[in-house]
Amino acid sequence: MSKLGDWIDPQAHGIYVKPANVWIDPSRPTARALVTHGHADHARSGHDAVWATPETLAIMDARYGAQAGNPVAYGESRSFGDVTATFVPAGHVLGSAQILLEYRGERIVVSGDYKRRADPTCAAFQPVKCDVFITEATFGLPVFRHPETGNEIDKLTAALHANPTRCVLVGAYALGKAQRVIAELRARGHDAPIYIHGALEKLCALYQAHGVDLGALRPATVANKAEMMGHIVIAPPGALADRWSRRLPDPITAMASGWMRVRQRAVQRGVELPLILSDHADWDELTDTLTEIAPKEVWVTHGREDALVHWCQTRQIKARPLHLSGFEDEDD
């Protein structure tokens, strides 16, 4: 008797779909890759052929040069032998997708990275009923419960208004987080120009080209201190303590990340204003998603695997960690 999902072969460097002869998010070049989203720990270059959403392919092109890409829109399916793959919104970043695999009557969802919070920069997560749900667990501990997004954005604007002769320098991951911070600021009425580090310009332009309105953005590289007083400046986290930041007007250092829940991480990064803003599901969202989808089995790809596996087992849901390698916590 065949075992549920025995046609899926999780290996350290990716998930291999045997009857389709394709890999999902492989960490090394392969002949055929299905890619869930554009973050570098999921989307590598060098594949002979790639299937992903048009937005993810555009991100890969921008980062790696032209890919041998095959676009698959949300809700569309592609056949690989007897396996059907359908791309469904994951709510993580622009173009992020879950991949529903159907074969011999079984339904397996590879969720990639996902979140359940509203995000003006990407399509919302869509729950899909399945037999096996393959999930991340980046914030898979009960201590991780993300606060309301609006409250964190209000902390940012309050600090700005209280210090009109300074600027607020926000560290934010270049793909997804930076654009989300900008869009959330706009949604709460912050219409002033926002200054951005040069490393963010290409991806911000890509988001805008795909219909995400980020408002007036200006390069921080060419602005002087006086121009940036009373404004928000956004840069990659690595630039917060870089010589580049010395050109800013007495910056209040902030960082937008789910890891800002951990006080020691904020202290280590020299963060004055921690903003708990994540593009991953928190503990409640992970467990609520599993309750909603009600799969027969849960496989955990990366993150805090043990706690989520234990939660499943106490509820009579078969679960196991996959111990995939190469997936980073990112600066979230």
TrEMBL record:
<feature type="domain" description="Metallo-beta-lactamase">
    <location>
        <begin position="11"/>
        <end position="173"/>
    </location>
</feature>
<dbReference type="GO" id="GO:0016874">
    <property type="term" value="F:ligase activity"/>
</dbReference>
<dbReference type="InterPro" id="IPR050698">
    <property type="entry name" value="MBL"/>
</dbReference>
<protein>
    <submittedName>
        <fullName>DNA ligase-associated DEXH box helicase</fullName>
    </submittedName>
</protein>
<dbReference type="InterPro" id="IPR036866">
    <property type="entry name" value="RibonucZ/Hydroxyglut_hydro"/>
</dbReference>
<dbReference type="InterPro" id="IPR001279">
    <property type="entry name" value="Metallo-B-lactamas"/>
</dbReference>
<keyword id="KW-0436">Ligase</keyword>
<dbReference type="InterPro" id="IPR026360">
    <property type="entry name" value="Xnuc_lig_assoc"/>
</dbReference>
